[in-house]
Every structure is written in C-alpha cells, then in structure tokens.
Amino acid sequence: MRRPLLLLVSVLATLALVVPGVLLVGGAGPPPSRVRPAAAAGPDARAVLADWDRRRSAAWAAGDVDALDRLYVPGSAAGRKDRAMLERWTGRGLVVEDLRLALISVEVVAAATHRLVLRVTDRVAAGRAVGRGVDVRLPEDGPTTRRVTLVRAAGEWLVAEVR
Fold first, then answer.
1. What is the pLDDT of residue 29?
2. Cα(18)–Cα(77) distance, rounded to whole angstroms?
3. Which class for 51: exposed (0-12), middle (13-18), buried (19 or more C-beta within 10 A)?
4. For 75, phi and psi rounded to 5 degrees?
5. pLDDT of 71-86, one tens digit each?
6. Dihedrals φ, ψ of 149, to 5°?
7. Cα dihedral sign for 108, 103, 139, 8?
8. Which of 27, 56, 98, 126 is most exposed, with the fewest beta carbons within 10 Å of its own?
C-alpha cells in the first residue's frame, strides 16, 4: 500500500502544477480573490475558470480522456500533460473524484472577447483517488501561481497555454 500511496501523492503534486482549478472550498471558503476588471468587451474571468474547472473535474472523475482533450486547444502542451496524467491514473484503475481547487487569486493580465490571459494562484483543497478497493483522500497542497491563456473557440473556452 505504501508504493501506490507514494505514486498517488506524486501524481497529485504534478496535477496541482499543470492546470489551475477554481472550485471553491465549502464553508468559509478561501480568502477573497483579487480580480481586476477586464475591458468592457472582456469575459468574466472567474466565471470562465469556474466553468472550465467543472468540466475538467467531471472528465477526471469519469476517467474520460476525450472529454479532457476537448478542454484544450489542439496541440496544447498543458493538454498533453493533463491527458498523460489521467491515462496513468486510469491505467491503474483509478479516477479522481470530488477534485476541488481553492482559488486564492486571479489577476486579469489581458482580456478580449475571444482571448483571456490570467495570473492564477490556487491550491488543491479536496479530492479522492478511487478504484479497485482504493478510496484515498488526496492531500492538500500549498499555493501555486501560473499564467493561463484561454481562447474561445466554437462557443467554449479552451486552455491554450499554462506557464
């Protein structure tokens, strides 16, 4: 059991570094985020991130790599990394349920109708690795800040880049 747990912690740490999440923790929640108002034509950054993260969490819980792929611009390095991680988990018979990442702050770097660049700080707040007799609560992690570029294509916001 020690080896799968170490693998789980390792993969979770990688997961927390690859793609930002935004579902807020229940109860008191995280500290208020700092969102700079975007230009009038720009989208609501918090709403865009919340919707994207809900779709990503659902794909991870279902172990659905095709649904996960649809959240990224084709060829996105972040998308390839996220897919590879999900495939490693599902290859071991595991999925991640109830994944929640606490949004600490969001800064709009650039905003337009079809492009959004954000500086996001978040952390893993909850989740469970489930499968084949395993139901392990994921550890919380510390805050991580990334620059995330999203683009709007066919009516959906897709992640193009995460740095």
1. 37
2. 10
3. middle
4. 90, 0
5. 999 999 999 999 999 9
6. -110, 125
7. negative
8. 27
Alpha-carbon distance of 113 to 35, in angstroms, equals: 17
Q: What is the DSSP letter of 19?
A: S
Q: How far apart are CA 25 and CA 16, in angstroms?
A: 15
Q: What are the helix (H) ranges across the chain?
A: 2-18, 45-62, 65-69, 77-91
Q: Which two tokens stand for residue 38?
A: 């975007």
Tokens of 124: 């893993």
> Residues 6 or more apart from 43 whose CB is under 8 A from it?
111, 113, 116, 152, 157
